[in-house]
Amino acid sequence: GTERRVDLRIQNFCGGTDARWLTYTAPANTTNPTLIDIAIPDTSAKENESIILPVELLTPIEATAFPVSTVTVTFDSSILVYEALGPLTGCLLQNAGLTAKLLGNTVVVTTARKVQVTGTGTLFRLRFRTRVLDRTTCGRVRPFWEFNAGCLKPRVFDSEVCVLAKEPRMRCTIDMPSKLLWDRARKDYVPNPILVRGYWVNSGEKAAKGARVTIEVDPARVALLSPTTDEQILFPGMVAPGDTLRVEWLVRALPR
């Protein structure tokens, strides 16, 4: 399917030299093409982070001329922003004259010339930046590969990219007596009332908003003294990363 040029030169024959050249198009083997698998691996990254998506040749090939190609890579623009082609160092198509342009949510990559490829590896790379999101979100990246000639037939696979949104992670510890003793003379538990103190540490990467703390007690055994409600809504209710929130209840253990 590619154009070839054949040069024929006759030197010092019958006292002279002559040269001719001819161009022709090599026949394409469309009945028995060589299938090759191409894919972008699934990946995940934090929000507002630069990531590299490699386009990988998965099928080993032996010293094959990789034809001039047009590759379209469609991505989810709600989670990714295209930045650039590359880096190309070490890629199988490093010397193929790669260029890329962005059309909406599709990157169109073209090669200017065929190159010799052996084995498997990264064909080229694309660099994206993840968007800032309210929640962790996954999207599809869909490559499509087209050769202008040759006997290779690509089988291309979609990939999934997950952008991990920064989230608060609240870790709780409780400070209170581990046991109560019954004082027969007083006919009451010791200590009583009991101070129940809770500490919530935000070990995440994002502030926790709308802090609301609930205590669960058996009303037949425990009475809430201060506050008397089982829920506390805190103001301003925001716990920054690394900060600690403290909440207290004064409760009384009831005789059994």
Topology:
Blueprint: E1 3-13, E2 16-25, E3 34-39, E4 43-46, E5 50-66, E6 69-74, E7 80-85, E8 99-103, E9 106-110, E10 115-130, E11 137-147, E12 152-157, E13 159-164, E14 170-175, E15 181-183, E16 188-190, E17 194-202, E18 208-209, E19 212-214, E20 222-226, E21 231-233, E22 238-239, E23 244-253
Parallel strand pairs: 3-12, 4-13
Antiparallel strand pairs: 1-2, 3-5, 5-10, 6-9, 6-11, 7-10, 8-9, 11-13, 14-17, 15-16, 17-23, 18-22, 19-21, 20-23
Number of strands: 23
Order of helices and strands: EEEEEEEEEEEEEEEEEEEEEEE
What's the story with the biggest beta sheet? 6 strands, mixed
Q: How helix-rich are the residues, as a percent range?
A: under 10%
β content, as a range? over 45%
| Oligomeric status | single chain
Low-confidence stretches: none
How would you describe this structure to a colleague?
The protein has 256 residues and is mainly beta. Helix content is 0%, strand content 61%. The protein contains no helices and 23 strands. It has strands at residues 3-13, 16-25, 34-39, 43-46, 50-66, 69-74, 80-85, 99-103, 106-110, 115-130, 137-147, 152-157, 159-164, 170-175, 181-183, 188-190, 194-202, 208-209, 212-214, 222-226, 231-233, 238-239, 244-253. A 6-stranded mixed beta sheet has the order 4-13-11-6-9-8, with no helix packed on it. A 5-stranded mixed beta sheet has the order 7-10-5-3-12, with no helix packed on it. A hairpin with a 4-residue loop joins strand 15 (181-183) and strand 16 (188-190). The chain starts with a strand and ends with a strand. The model has no long low-confidence stretch (mean pLDDT 91).
